[in-house]
Amino acid sequence: MAVAGETTLEYTPTWVVAAVCTVIVAISFAVERILHYTGKYLKKKDQKPLYEALLKIKEELMLLGFISLLLTVSQDRIARICIPKRYSDDWLPCKKIKDDSGEKSTSHFQIFISQGGRRLLAEDSASTSYCAKRGKDPILSTTALHHLHIFIFVLAVVHVVFCVLTIVFGGAKIRQWKSWEDAISKKEYDPEEVLKTKFTNVQDHDFIKGRFGGLGKRVNLLGWVHSFFKQFYASVTRSDYTTLRLGFIMMHCRGNPKFNFHKYMIRALEADFKRVVGISWYLWIFVVVFLLLNVYGWHAYFWIAFVPFILLLAVGTKLEHVITQLAHEVAEKHVAIEGDLVVKPSDDHFWFHSPQIVLILIHVILFQNSFELAVFFWIWVQYGFDSCIMGQLGFIIPRLVIGVFVQFLCSYSTLPLYAIVTQMGSSFKRAIFDEHIQKGLVGWAKKAKQKKGFKTNANGHNQVGPKEEASPPPAVQLTQVVKKDQDHDHDQEDAEGKKGNVAVGEIHPANGSK
Asked: What does pTM read for this prediction?
């Protein structure tokens, strides 16, 4: 729709059109090439989880592109949808005021006029006059659609950036534990240490003293209080790492005590990252609900900042309490043990017996915190710091402080806690296998399923004949797959660990359960 006073493409110099198109295409092509070469680099380094996370980011960009196209194409039609005036005066982010002419306006529109948004306001006047002739108001003006367009883009960009920062800083903290893994491996390779018989006094063990600590921690309430404060300082100590590592190995790969637990933990975290970086459908529902509740006087933007803050403290406390429960079980059952102290991982320690719920909550926390800060920057750039939507200074400062605190605590405490504590479930993750072994197992499962279907069809058509010899048990078949792919393994220790893990039958392909 042409706007009065505006030059159309018919009367725009061709060199201007060509120059603008060249710049836009060049920027788009540069971004696409950066993503492409980043993907090639990750594939070259065998970083498939991070490569899949990059693909997830591309999917989000495609979704944003479609939303942008949809808003651009349909903005004129949306602006011509009219509603009765009484419906446009309720549930407003800013209180309407009357100017000297008696017409209603809002403070942030006045700010926008001073910043030179004349073209959009001219289009607004066209859509407003269309509905005004019918005694109604437009359901959404062209200016509001433009601002909504920018907000969705800012939200997605801020969310992706904050997720990447969280995984980078959290991964850096986890990689500091590699020295602990190397020290444990060096000790296990020492013949004198291996042959030495030792007895452990449970109450004198560093893990028990730090997590159980005598009679006080036996009270359930005090245990939760201790876990709450523990997430703020030394959330994972060396004794925690050593004990949880041994508990995982004895539970899932007893045949390989030299299993590289740190390497497995990094691979599992990278695999989970692709789920965190995306914006799921239930997160978009959260955005819609917030936009609905952002009413003048309700200060929804302020109260919403406490949602990720409270969830983060709850998740961190729960993860610390899982470690405390593991120490509690050992301390109550034993006074002294032969060898090292071993904890028993179990899903019973987690909410609803599912460690994966923690990942969903972290996803929600990161998105809500990104949403809160994205709203702040969007309002600041779009309407100005003094806009009525921004609110009073007393509400702004706490929002920023909470946002920075949530980002810092999630990166340096909660994410590392998640990486190690969620391994204390009853099952392990597929990251325990290297990529080529995963492909071998998937191929074996497909062939086994096809073979089962062929046998069923054959038995249905021919009931006469000798019974076929039973196939070897799943554990034997899985061991054969591991042995077949062993020549391609670059890390002999990991391959041995996976064979030991498979041999004890932790995966049951017949029914797909763990």
From this structure: 0.72
Q: What are phi and psi of 122, to 5 degrees?
A: -65, -40
Token digits for 252?
Answer: 């899932």
pLDDT tens figures, 449-471: 777 766 666 665 554 444 444 44
Rounded Cα distance, 372 and 44, in Å: 37
144-171 b/e (C-beta count within 10 Å ≥ 16 → b): bbbbebebbbbbbebbbebbeebbebbb
Decide if 493 contacts 253 (C-beta within 8 A): no
Task: List, for residues 317-351, the tens digit of each pLDDT value.
Answer: 999 999 988 888 888 777 667 667 788 888 888 99
| Amino acid making up residue 320 | E
User: Which whole-number Å values give the CA distances from 80 to 15, 133, 138, 145, 468, in the listed order?
Assistant: 34, 12, 6, 12, 73
Q: How many CB atoms lie within 10 A of CB 425?
A: 23
Largest CA distance in the chain: 99
Question: Residue type at 32?
Answer: E
What is the helix (H) or strand (E) element at residue 283, kind and residue range? helix 281-293
Least confident window among 74-78, 85-89, 311-315, 337-341? 337-341
Sign of the CA dihedral 51, 57, 61, 64? positive
Q: Is 199 helix (H, G, I), strand (E, B) or coil?
A: strand
DSSP structural state of residue 412:
I
